[in-house]
Design goal:
The protein has 277 residues and is of the alpha+beta class. It contains eight helices and seven strands.
Length: 277
């Protein structure tokens, strides 16, 4: 009875390993066939023969990139493309539930490139960070930006194979030319403030009318209150001086003539009085 139980457990374990390996190898290519938008990445996996080493692992998570997003690396050398794609194969199982259930922190994920022994300065690892409920990916090299974002799950065979979509390819420093995400679009201009509605504007109250009559209309001082500045008398000109001198001379000569006439009359009166005697 004990021998039969041991044989049963051994056979179950063997079949599980066999079929898990087969499922992993097959679904890497078959899963992409269901999504025409990922045909380019599927072709690159076959072209670089990465589907062969991937099939040797029982637990794999593939970070898939759409045809449009993967275009920047398509024309690079076969070695560069292979190394870049190896960094998109995580040697662990992460599905949508696991990614969304992450705490707000950063973790390092081991990739297939790390198994080559060529990894330098953590470029065989991926930095997976959850921030404000969103999951981002970047190279494990110190100072590398988080360039890709988790989009959605494409395929999952629990604890064997998970394929999830990310927004753009991740290129680690030292493997090829790094790709940075495009800048965010400019913010739209702020809408112009709407003019106030005259019908809704409150009318002036009694106090406002009094204040308006006191402050809004400037008070004018009467003309009599205007301060006048005494201006200096004009300086007499040379012609005016001559006229004044002539007037003075004429008045003095008239006075002299009047005085002489008076003396003559007086002498005549005296002379007539003596002649009478």
């Amino acid at each position: 009875m004990g021998l039969n139980a041991s044989l049963y457990l051994f056979s179950r374990t063997f079949l599980l390993i066999f079929f898990s390996t087969a499922i992993t190898a097959d679904n890497i290519t078959q899963a992409f066939e269901k999504y025409s938008n990922f045909s380019t990445m599927n072709d690159l996996l076959i072209k670089t023969k990465l589907n062969i080493p991937i099939s040797k692992y029982l637990t794999i998570t593939l970070l898939a990139v759409s045809n449009e997003a993967i275009s920047p690396i398509v024309n690079r050398s076969d070695v560069e493309v292979k190394n870049i794609l190896m960094n998109h194969v995580i040697l662990d199982y992460y599905d949508e539930i696991k990614f969304k259930g992450m705490k707000e922190k950063s973790i390092m994920l081991t990739t297939l490139y790390q198994t080559t022994g060529l990894g330098e300065e953590m470029n065989g690892f991926l930095n997976c960070t959850k921030s404000k409920g969103r999951v981002y990916f970047g190279s494990g090299v110190k100072g590398s930006p988080l360039v890709a974002e988790y989009v959605k799950a494409l395929y999952d065979n629990p604890y064997n194979l998970s394929i999830v979509q990310i927004s753009m390819p991740i290129v680690a420093p030292g493997l090829s030319l790094v790709i940075f995400p495009p800048p965010p679009p400019p913010a739209p201009p702020a809408p112009a403030p709407s003019p106030p509605d005259a019908a809704m504007a409150p009318g002036p109250g009694p106090d406002d009318d009094d204040n308006a009559s006191d402050t809004a209309v400037p008070k004018h001082k009467p003309a009599t209150e205007t301060t006048e500045v005494d201006s200096p008398a004009p300086t007499p000109s040379a012609d005016n001086e001559k006229i004044e001198a002539a007037d003075k001379a004429g008045s003095s000569s008239s006075a002299c003539k009047a005085g002489l006439s008076f003396v003559v009359v007086l002498l005549l009166l005296l002379f007539a009085s003596f002649a009478g005697f």
